[in-house]
């Protein structure tokens, strides 16, 4: 028999404490999911708290959603029912950091912005740079499979997650993967959890693969009158020996907010200063051969907010081979123009 609302409130408060159980209307509205309002929000401070909360939810047949920073809370199907929200901001500790092994184990509520300074002290970084900002939590980035321009060199969350601890719907705490880079034992559970949107379990702890910060990094932007012209440069780069950190094609509004052209290719190289300069010279030669106009970008080019995304009425995420990206951008823009977008 389901417990009463008062008894449930007491049970939740008994796990996390009254000060970490929220029922006020402002908090509930802030944590709504696709218009569905929860009846309560709990803010666990430990993996054991999460386990006990999910065990209680399973026993009482409650529908619960995990929440990180809430940036992409609308991603995925709308919930059929939402009784409560697990706000994981309280799980924000660095559990273990091994600079010599280039690994760090962190709780999944840790914001990327809070992790970065700890790693920077050892000239290391976690190379995920989602477009929606460093305020994102580690768990949220993994659960939504988010990445940014650095994925060209360093990969996506699936390539950077070594091990993961998560809590199943019945409260069982489970670990998959390893705490070291070279491990080939067992099922690759971490890759399964990436992009799962919390449907397979609540991510509470992750072991991450880190990388050294390049000694130098510079960015060049090559502008073209059309996306089709930019495609020629993209193909030439992919067919060359160049090794960019980042490689992005910009068209339409994206190009207009950043460059003087209708389409552009932004390329950055990160390495020792001599290698960066040499690759930059090779890029300029290739770009001019394709008829592009080359400029050196300002140092904050990649960190500036991508404001056009915030104002967009439609945001479409499409996966395609790198060689087809320019043509795909042109086709999407053509279709969008045809319907007045």
Keywords:
341 residues, alpha+beta, Uridine Diphospho-n-acetylenolpyruvylglucosamine Reductase, domain 2, Uridine Diphospho-n-acetylenolpyruvylglucosamine Reductase, domain 3, Alpha-Beta Plaits, 3 domains, five-stranded antiparallel beta sheet, four-stranded mixed beta sheet, 13 helices, 15 strands, globular
Characterize the structure shown:
This protein is an alpha+beta fold and 341 residues long. The model has no long low-confidence stretch (mean pLDDT 89). It folds into three domains: 85 residues, Uridine Diphospho-n-acetylenolpyruvylglucosamine Reductase, domain 2 (2-Layer Sandwich); 122 residues, Uridine Diphospho-n-acetylenolpyruvylglucosamine Reductase, domain 3; 123 residues, Alpha-Beta Plaits. Strand 5 and strand 6 form a beta hairpin. It starts with a helix and ends with a helix. The longest helix has 17 residues. Strands 5-6-10-8-9 form a five-stranded antiparallel β-sheet. The protein has a four-stranded mixed β-sheet with strand order 1-2-4-3. A four-stranded antiparallel β-sheet has the order 13-14-12-15. It has 13 helices and 15 strands. 33% of the residues lie in helices and 22% in strands.
